[in-house]
Amino acid sequence: MSRKPIPRFDDNYTEDSARQRRAFLEAETGVSLTHTGHYSLPPESVRNNTENFIGVVQMPVGVAGPVLIHGEDAQGWFYVPMATTEGTLVASYSRGMRMLSESGGVKTTVIDDNMQRAPMFEFEDARAAKRFVQWMQATLPAITAAAESTTRHGKLLNIQHWQIARMVYTRFNFSTGDAAGQNMTGKAAHAASQWILAHSPEPVIHFSLSGAIETDKKHSHMNLMHSRGKRVVAECVVKRDVLAQRARTTPEIIFKQRQRSYLGAMLAGSAYNGPHSANGIAALFIATGQDEANVVESHTGFSFMDITPEGDLYYSCTLPSVICATKGGGTGLSTQAECLTMLGCNGEGKARKLAEIVGATVLAGDLSLISAIMSDEWVSSHDAYGRNRS
After folding, report:
1. Are 352 and 233 part of one and the same domain?
2. Of the four listed, 3, 39, 50, 108, which is most buried by Cβ atoms within 10 Å?
3. What is the pTM for the complete model shown?
4. In this structure, are 126 and 93 located in the same domain?
5. Cα 119 from Cα 171, distance rounded (Å)
6. How far apart are alpha carbons 82 and 282 in whole angstroms?
7. Based on the domain organization, do 155 and 35 belong to the same domain?
């Protein structure tokens, strides 16, 4: 069987080019693409988002909430769009949001904001590498100028470095405004590295734009310690009577389980010691046009609880590397822009606000799930909402 390439045209983003590709695939695979070919967005709008465009995958979108957030940027009541095919998910997050809101709301704080590229430089020996580090620190203003010449929004904040043998592994830390910033920082770090290679007094015998310690779209302990994206804390004092009425449990029962599940998470080497941060982040990311692969880094973090002197439950989650954007990528596509606008997060100056909403959403889902587990309603709720029907 000979290779039959996918049809391409002078303009690959027209109704006709998409229709001809669907016809080609239907002939080659025998599968009807009727539903895939029904969409409301203009094909030209996906020019920078996908190639070989044939249509869309229709993802159900539910709305959770409202949730009351007291953030530095996100303030007030929010209805949270969640794209998911998992029954019970939206209902569970809505219940958690109600419990948080009836307890006074969620306080959210962004405490760090970076995006990285991590060039690696190799030298003749360790002493040459050491001299290079000293030179790089002394010439940081010139390196910064080279990096920032490529972008209007990115700013080089600092360069971290770790020397191993004769290699110097760096992390160029940038602020990126309302963009997630992977492409922005890649271009800026490339320009800075080219300046370094041209001016370094120590001969560089090997160079790579990525030495892999930025761990792009991979979980790592590095990004738990040194944030990649936005480091977000969401916290709430959940009232005892709210837990009794809405979840049929108590602060003591939840806290006791948390102590035990924390050990289980350690035993498993889990990247997050709370119930399920990835569920809410993935659903919210898909609805708002984020790069879905960034869920890998964004879902990692720490859950913490305490019993207050008044007998209520202090509950928090810390997400060290939430990578989200309100400009660029898929955020400008038709339905994704509508979802961002629903949150008041469409456009400039809104990325930190979106990150705070992500944190509040994760906390709501965690509270609801652990409550369902402790009141023995986890399985029955999935049965009631259809997930386990067959």
Report:
1. yes
2. 108
3. 0.93
4. no
5. 7
6. 8
7. no
